[in-house]
Automatic annotation (TrEMBL):
Residues 5-139 form the Isochorismatase-like domain. It comes from the Bacteria. It comes from Streptomyces plicatus. One of its GO terms (molecular function) is hydrolase activity. Its EC number is 3.-.-.-. Transmembrane segments: none annotated. This is Cysteine hydrolase family protein. It is an enzyme of class 3 (hydrolase). The keyword Nucleus does not apply. CDD domains: nicotinamidase_related (cd01014). Keywords: Hydrolase. The lineage of its organism: Bacteria, Bacillati, Actinomycetota, Actinomycetes, Kitasatosporales. The keyword Hydrolase applies.
Amino acid sequence: MPSRTALLVIDMQNATVALAHRAAETVAVIAGLSERARAAGVPVVTVRQRDEGMVPGTEGWRVVPELAPREGEPVVDKTTPDSFLGTDLDGLLRGLGVTEVVVTGFATEVCVDTTARQALSRGYDLVVVADGHTTSRRTPADAGRLVPADDSIAQCNTIYRTIGWPGRRIRVRAAADVELRPA
């Protein structure tokens, strides 16, 4: 049976993008992939973080304009790094007949990674968009505590190129090489 794909755009909100490494480039990559998905009839699911620093209705909580969901597109609000935990994401995807998720967004080593692993655990095949996820910019105070942002992104991509998950298909692709199959 062929895969049916959905694109997940995770936490690309004004407050997170403001502190993101290579923010403009990542937004542009995800925007291009979103347009390709829409043209192919592939659902684009926007996931938003909600917490004490990301209060619904505030400017920081809003999705950046280039990635704002279109009328009628699904939006999932979450309160943890796991886009599935305590949300209707799994039911939404299953209701759309999705068997594969294409993961993009912020932050590489937190919400993107957690959601990707949970998708695998819930039975979805996975595509990590190599140039479609990012992390926070690093400051001098981060030296020795956090790996450089480019290294964090590269590590995530390498892990998903080599990780095994029985019964699941896992791929890491540049946005230009992502195949989009309608759900």
